[in-house]
Amino acid sequence: MNPVIALVGRPNVGKSTLFNRLTKTRDALVADFPGLTRDRKYGTGKVGGKPYTVIDTGGISGDEEGIDLMMAGQSLAAIDEADIVLFMVDARAGLNMADEAIANHLRVNQKKTWLVVNKTDGMDEEIGKSDFWTLGLGDPRAIAAEHGRNVTTLLEEVLSPYPEVEEDEDEDLHPELDDRGVRIGIIGRPNVGKSTLVNRLLGEERVVVYDQAGTTTDAVEIPFERRGKPYLLVDTAGIRRRKNVREVVEKFSIIKTLEAIKKCNVAVMVLDARQGLVEQDLHLLDFVLTSGRALVLVVNKWDGLESEAKEKMRSEIKRRLGFADYADLHFISALHGTAVGDLYPSIDRAFESAVARWSTKRLTTLLQDATQAHQPPMVNGRRIKLRMAHQGGANPPLIVVHGNQTNKLPEAYKRYLTNTFRKVLKVKGTPMRFEFRSGD
Ligand code: GDP
Ligand code: GDP
Fold it and tell me: InterPro entries, from UniProt (predicted)?
């Protein structure tokens, strides 16, 4: 797992400026975790062959009340998840009471903290740093996040204990199928029934779990076979192990969830029928959507509930998760094993859709049929023309459509095309992306 860097500091010291600089250089899986007053952001980046995850914590001042206090709680949670803390202060504003309050917290924290003095552009670095020695957090480092001054040097130093990572073992954002089978990631809030489901999936009669010399309980990937077909269960959060040594409180880790999403081919997102949809479900789902992963939605704890409740839940999901309507939805009871076996066909289909390949001929014919059934509109007296379609990528599928004036294509027409392609190509359980290119 990549080292996790948390950016901590009072508001306005330059955390998001630094976050943007640290994440902009590559195709980062960036997740937004909306807070009440400000988002907590997750992103990835790489310096000198070393990948890292970075969290912008939103900001704490040390004397919060009300909403601010909750936000501060989020920052503290981020510090807990981090391997490295960059504590940022502002050279222009000088030392501040809030800085001291945060420093007090970080001093008792065991984590590796670096004191980073930002906004030292246009000033002598030593003068910029001079205020902050009294914080007792070691040598201050002077940077200017906005201009990039000393940022790379700082990161190299901060990451020096961590190994370089070969290109191909790095951040495999889109793992393709290998002969070890489809990778299934079970994600969801604490207590929705993930570990019950995992044990149910692995404990099923027709499932053969391969014990890797007694390491299965700690393994991140658990291989198993069902009806002769291989699968891998991705268990970055240790949900399998938890069943055996029942942990009292599970600390919910966004980092581990992101890791599971990244490592799996299909994310199985578990919701709790007894609690309905809550804010955190939506955030988790947002991670899945951002990642482009194939998805199966599961409403668990269905036992003992009336069938009207099912309709209610279904319509609530439809209303609030409309953006994830490509995913199959299952109502199960992990505890009793009801409908759990039905997940496999959905998982298989979602994965097959995600990595499917279609010929240019097939896609172009489909495009022509669709435009014949419904012509694109006229713009400035000229009809928008869509001539050719080809596949630009897989997992998730990307369809590139070529034509004229495609930048004028109305959203409604794009939706019509998307739906038609989905239906005809029988794409289920994966997002599908379209790109329109214009010859004029
Ligand atoms: P955050 O609230 O800690 O995330 O702070 P922001 O990243 O939003 O930055 C607050 C303000 O400081 C913005 O106006 C930035 O443009 C400015 N700022 C950030 N980094 C630098 C820097 O290196 N030098 C200067 N002069 N201004 C900066
Ligand atoms: P996790 O934190 O998401 O791994 O959740 P657990 O698997 O530990 O389950 C949390 C609680 O919900 C436990 O008390 C389970 O027994 C209970 N639970 C799990 N699945 C079901 C189910 O299908 N029906 C009911 N009624 N309870 C369930």
Answer: G_ENGA, GTP-bd, GTPase_Der, KH_dom-like, KH_dom-like_a/b, P-loop_NTPase, Small_GTP-bd
Angle of CA points 414, 418, 423, to nearest 5°: 150
Q: What angle do CA 408, 412, 415 make, to 5 degrees?
A: 105
Q: How many alpha carbons lie under 13 Å from residue 256 in its C-beta half-sphere?
A: 18
- Which DSSP state fits 149? B
Looking up tokens 């004036």, which residue turns up?
Answer: 405
Give residue-wise pLDDT tens across range 163-184: 888 754 434 444 555 667 899 9
Q: Is 150 in the pocket of ligand 1 (CB under 6 A)?
A: no
Please classify residue 287 by burial: count the beta carbons closer than 10 Å to its beta carbon, then call 0-12 exposed, 13-18 middle and 19+ buried: buried
**Tell me, what amino acid is at 213?**
A
pLDDT for 206-259, tens place per residue? Answer: 677 776 545 445 567 888 989 889 999 988 776 666 555 444 444 567 788 888
Please name the residues in contact with 231: beta carbons below 8 A apart, sequence gap of 6 or more.
Answer: 181, 182, 183, 184, 223, 224, 225, 347
CA pair distance 367, 424, nearest whole angstrom: 11
- CB–CB of 397/353 below 8 Å? yes
The structure tokens listed for 374 are 């419904």
Q: Name the packing angle between helices 15-23 and 151-158 (round to 10°).
A: 80
Distance CA 246, CA 260 (A): 21
Q: How far apart are the first and last CA of the chain?
A: 46
Closest of 319, 260, 324 to residue 298, by C-alpha: 324
Q: What is the residue whose two structure tokens read 């290998």?
A: 178
- The ligand whose atoms approach the alpha carbon of 192 most closely is 2
Provide the pLDDT for residue 117.
98
Closest atom of ligand 2 to 333 CA is: 23
Task: Report how far residue 429's alpha carbon sits from residue 325's, in angstroms, rounded to the nearest whole number.
Answer: 9
Residues 324-343 have pLDDT tens digits of: 778 999 999 999 999 999 99
Q: State how far the Cα of 300 lies from the Cα of 7, in Å rounded to an integer.
A: 36
Please name the residue whose Cα sits nearest to atom 15 of ligand 2: 193
Contacts of 184 (CB under 8 A, 6+ apart): 201, 231, 232, 233, 234, 264, 265, 266, 268, 347
